Write the structure tokens for this entry.
Amino acid sequence: MVELTLPKNSKVQQGKTWPKPEGATNLREYRIYRWSPDDDENPRMDTYFVDMDDCGPMVLDALLYIKNKIDPTLT
């Protein structure tokens, strides 16, 4: 049986897990694929926690919230 694997530079690694907001009761976890073609690093999955009481219901609302309030490097 043939076993196929991705090249070493294509394997997705565990990224940063951002802290949960204090006092949040309505949390949602977002795992976002991050990769920069300018770096020699492998792609990674960063984990963010958003209090949905501070954010709109759409995924785009959460992405904008993460970019504006948690991680400004998200583009």
Remarks:
- Residues 55 and 62 are 6 Å apart (CA to CA).
- The chain has one helix and three strands.
- The mean pLDDT is 92.
- The chain has one domain: 10-70.
